[in-house]
Design brief:
Elements lengths: L7 H14 L4 E2 L5 E6 L2 E6 L5 E5 L17 E4 L5 E11 L2 E11 L4 E5 L8 E6 L5 E6 L2 E6 L5 E3 L8 E3 L4 H7 L5 E3 L5 E8 L5 E6 L7 E6 L10 E7 L6 E2 L9 E10 L2 E8 L4 E8 L5 E8 L11 E2 L8 E2 L4 E6 L6 E6 L5 E3 L7 E8 L4 E6 L8 E6 L7 E2 L8 E6 L5 E8 L2 E9 L4 E2 L6 H7 L7 E7 L5 E7 L10 E6 L25 H4 L2 E6 L9 H5 L8 H16 L3 E11 L1 H12 L6 E5 L10 H8 L2 H10 L14 E7 L8 H12 L5 E5 L12 H16 L6
Parallel strand pairs: 24-29, 39-40, 39-41, 41-42, 42-43, 43-44
Antiparallel strand pairs: 1-2, 2-3, 3-4, 5-6, 6-7, 7-8, 9-10, 10-11, 11-12, 13-15, 14-15, 15-18, 16-17, 18-19, 20-21, 21-22, 22-23, 25-26, 26-27, 27-28, 29-30, 30-31, 31-32, 33-34, 34-35, 35-36, 37-38, 38-40
Helix pairs in contact: 6-7
Length: about 725
Amino acid sequence: MKRIHFLFLFLFVQLSLQAQFNRGVQWTEDGNGYRRIENKEIIQYSLPDLQKTVLISAKQLTPAGKSEPLTVRSYEFSEDGRKALIYTNTARVWRYDTRGDYWVLDLDKNTLTQVGKGRPVSSLMFAKFSPDGKKVAYVSERNIFAEDLATGKITPLTKDGTTRLINGTFDWVYEEEFDCRDGFRWSPDSRNIAYWQIDATKIRNFLMINNTDSTYAFNVPVEYPKVGERPSPYKIGVVSANGGATKWMSTPGDPGNTYIPRMEWANANELVMEQLNRKQNQAKCLYADVKTGRTTEFYTDSDDAWVETKSSYSWADSPAGWDWLNGGKEFLWMSEKDGWRHLYRVSRDGKTEKCITVGEYDVIGVVRIDEKNNYAYFMASPDNATQTYLFRVKLDGSGKAERMSPASQVGSHRYDISPNGAWASHSFSNANTAPMNEWLRLPDHKALKESDDITAKLAAQSSSKKKVEFFRVKTEDGTELDGWMVKPDNFDPTKKYPIVFSVYGEPASSTVMDRWGTGRNGLYIGDMAKDGYIYASVDNRGTPSPKGRAWRKAIYRKIGIVNIRDLAMGAKTLFAQNSFIDTSRVAVHGWSGGGSSTLNLLFQYPDLFKTGIAVAAVADQLSYDNIYQERYMGIPQENREDFVSGSPLSHAKNLRATQNLLYIHGTGDDNVHYQNAEKLVNELIKYNKQFQFMAYPNRSHGIYEGEGTSRHLNTLFTKFLKEHCPPGAK
């Protein structure tokens, strides 16, 4: 989930938006209906009439001898639709609930049977049917198993899994930075399973200390490769679904100095995979013959900074999947090779390619590939980087991209489009308009129900004053930045008000987006505008805004430098253009990467920023994980000075007595380690810099565990801000 995802404000916003946007839709195979979980049942709706049918009843989901149905977290159907695999009783692994129990409901026999009997409770991961529906494979305790559904026989396909030799799933850093979790794939003919094996035996444990849960403190080890450390070596293997020896693929290069974030079946006899070099600035596509293990390179993409992988942007099928066209003779690839992020249609041998989204704009994410009707649906925003709209383009590259989102709906959109391209679940919001949802007919973008019609609802709204105002500023360096501002209630431009900046600043996310939640502070108790604060944010170079490759890659080897200067110069320009800002009352806050930016802004630009609240910050870039930090900064053995010069630790001595700093960190943070806090505290002590510090015992990166934690954190934030950056007009 990368460092941004626990920036508190955006965690709150993103989770609430996800609940709005993601309706739990699972499309029917023909695309003319969808399924979802409702009231402990699985319901199917037909389109366009939205007629409801109970597909799987609560009674069918109730195990024999039990009075209550299973709590369904997710489900999938076999390819013939006659069996359902139910995921329940889940448990968290790092960030998500990816362990649990699985049951198979046979719709013909009306039987509900648990798979993986004899395995520990809630230990099964990523269970899935074989294509022929006769078996289910899953990971349990880092080994892969295949279970015959007719006989109940469980066959271990790997037996060497340990806490450090991981089969069919991934170590901490692959999950965190590549979104890799499910680590095995059924072959199309149901005969074999291909899987990753990650060897983390040489990755050192980072030891966190639990001082509160027993009389004697104990260590909590986390396998964590720090920047500059070699990655966990990998292997890609293929094993028969009936068991036996694994055939290992002969991947080129050093597996302890490269990565494979993607692997799929190309056909029943061949795998396709993407391999990154250590610096992640070259991607090689490989075919592997599963019988001989021999690999062949067929396509390469490279960048002077870094190459984005499929997990870097929104794609309809997540990081998994290889998007084949023309019966497997071609595939889709995303690249920034012409200065913009575009979709390319590439021949199977990699020798010919054609850009199908031509123009000076970025593809933000792919929503649906509708090969039958020759369309790719994608999100983009050529004219305003803070917004997102649906476009479609001919898959054969003939013609220009066509905007589908209505011109009257100005803001941010999200779509889930049916496999046949005829229907869509659509959500819309902007910073001043709460999320609205509707079911659509495509391509005319017409609501199925008049009562849900977003266009009509927007037309009927009163034209009240916009609370969140967007702006653009050009800094003295000539860089144009997007920003937003929320002014105090009863604003008087002849008076002066304190300003509070919300920042992030790193390549994992942007803070200036025209969508619901922008302009709200999830840490402040009360209403900042009512209390008399200006609340604002600007978006620096290096964030993933759809402004072209040069914008995004400007931060390469300069985290903590170029982004911090942009944020500071953006604030300086804002002050010069708005006399109502009280420059003696300027505060900044951020979480994770935003915490790092907060510290750097205070330390590097003390004339501009007077008060800062930094949460879970990376104080020393040499303390973070290798995949993230090396992707954006290089390898410290080659350019250590860049890591040092961009770290808040190197500038802590510049904190002034007239500035106010509150630093907050959880001691159980397995992402940005508490080590960062102690290093920073030591440096501030060394130079006799006075500040306020709060450590939350055993809390993780999100600082939410434990009774009263969120209330305490919110109170602390609000009290410190009001004391050191008092609200109200002067």
